[in-house]
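Example 3.2
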Amino acid sequence: MFNRLLPVPAWAATALAVVASLSLGMAAHAAQPAVGQVSLVIGEAHVVRIDGSREAVRRGASIMVGDRVETAFNGHVHMRFIDNAAVSVRPDSVLQVQAYTYDAARPQANEIRLLVERGTSRSISGAATDIDKSRFRLNTPIAAIGVRGTDFIVQTDPAGVRASVADGTIVVGALGGACSAAGLGPCAGAEVRELSADMGRLMAEVRPGDHATRIVPAADVSTAAGSDRARQDREQALSHARSTGMLAAEPTVKESQRGNDHVAAGLLTLAAVGVPDLNRASSLSNQLIWGHWALRSDEHDNLSVPFALATLGRHVTVADAETGLFRSNQTVPGELFPSTLQGTVELRLSRASTIYEVGNVTETASISRSNLTIDFTRRSFATGLDMASASGIKGELRMAGDLRSDGLFVLREGNPDLRAEQRVAGAVSLDGREAGYLFERSAGGGWFRGRTLWGP
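Structure, written as tokens:
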């Protein structure tokens, strides 16, 4: 009796078919090899798998072909792929991995195709592109981008597509005709344009309906993408950050009256700089980072990150016309610094970007010795830098003064009617382990200028 076969109702057959289909889809997804891994997540982000499932992005999560990475307004995701390529997905953006095949022994089989559906993404080429640049393609809804071995940023929104290059060369073409989204490598034709980092502060642009790519002056990242309302919000936030930072970067009346404590500055013992390459990107794991206002940082500045990234979980402290120093937001109510933070701390110079300007000529400069001492008991600071330009001009910065209750220190010395002879404007992290500051120092008829980070 129990072995007798019974007919399966129609509704049950349908349900079983759906379950079987979903099970096969999940099994197929599970069987797919990972082509990348998430190396950094900031804010809110999700990945939509090829089977339609949606999950929060976590550091260390695997990325597979077909995955769509979606970031919220405060989200940012970094991914590292099997050929060591790096891709970042900026806030309010969507990127899909359409294909990712890499075989060093069979480069003709390599195939990398990414789609930026919305927002902003940065791509740094890996081994697959180094071997054969014709096997890479990044598409947007209206334009295709091929590379010549490159670090580039692309933005797409209803107003069009914009791309800028930090290193190498890209080839940008409007989709349509011979330029197909299904293709690999750069598109060809008279209406396609190349853009290289050597061309300066320019970007490639394609607008809806365009048949040809234009090369135009680089736009501000805060106004280049998004709806009118989003653009206005970004403009207002950037304007507020700038004005707040500029105001904080000016000394108070009390600080101006006290002036530079030459005795304290003269007692500093400077140590040789132990980091071979100071001019490198701010670490997102630190409490203090530099963010630049423009789409791309100045050619001499490898220290700062884009403004949109710097604002995630941070606020601006001091600033100049190009960059701002962003500090992690305070999450615990009460005093800024804990009462246990007392005594004197000497911080190590970990990063810096430095130039020397005389007239209209700008050249690179280096820092050979440094010191930053913070006295939390007396609420004071003292700092010193020994600098040299590429042409051999030498300069010394020696300054000491008050540490404000908000963790900022700002000091200017010189003729108030002229440019100061030396100036610092900086901030200390909430745990007292990090600091950063802008500086200027006159020397040899010109000016040493730069920004620093101290600590880990």
